[in-house]
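discrete fold record:
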Amino acid sequence: MNQGRQNGMSRKHKAWKIPRGAKKSPMPGFIEPCNPKVGPIPTAEGWDYELKLDGYRLQAHVKPGQVTLYTRRGHDWTAKFPSIVSGLQTLLHHTPAVLDGELTAPDSQGRPNFSALQTAIHEDRSGALVFYAYDLLYLQQHDLRNLTLRARRAALGDLIGKGNEHIRISENLHSDGATLFDAACRMELEGIVSKRSDAPYRSGDQDSWIKTKCQKSDNFPIIAFVEKLGARPRRVASLYLGRRKAGKLLYAGKAQTGFRHEDLYFLRECLDPHIIPASPL
């Protein structure tokens, strides 16, 4: 092959560089995600920082002729996001890979908007969605999870490059964490995630990933709801929330404001398959 043809070689035929130390392995199924713990920004050396994106966690599995998109809990949501599937196929050309990332719906200023994401999903409009990849767990018959974050990120950057309309890489910023956090809050973003640059990828709750939010928040499971009388289509009027303490589910309070009408219609349909005859308390 002459030099001109080598320089014109497409990404489709590129032999991706496998990082040293990666283990040869058959392609895995769904991998339980690494979950960051909530905490203050680490100040020691050896941490990298990136913006926390307000979206849905997605794990993308790319095989020759097939892309599968899994939620945080391992549910197959491939059919919901054809634009993401197409974007991955175009960009990776069916290179066997597993990517960890976040599905977002950018607003007019490019900021992730969770409400817009929910609306787009409810209305089956995936064309406005963007998948931001921030970790690479598997590449061409090699498991990368035992490698350092820095090595995995380097391989991810080589794989994604500049991305495309629907697939991008989440920037890993090696700057001061406090400075980035202040900037994120001024931009009205959710916060930042600090990650140990020398840590392997491990499933479950890990202190090698720490999320710091601009606004204090917590998770409150929905234990009951009231439907708006006579509403068509049906929608939620109020929610009853729980809280977990010492392994028990306790009543936390009622929420009935702060929702858009469209969200209340969407939420009512989402809750339908989870109705049970007895109180969960």
The helical segments are 3-7, 82-92, 114-122, 149-160, 177-186, 261-271. Residues 19-213 form a domain with the D-amino Acid Aminotransferase; Chain A, domain 1 fold (CATH 3.30.470.30). The chain has two domains: 19-213, 222-274.
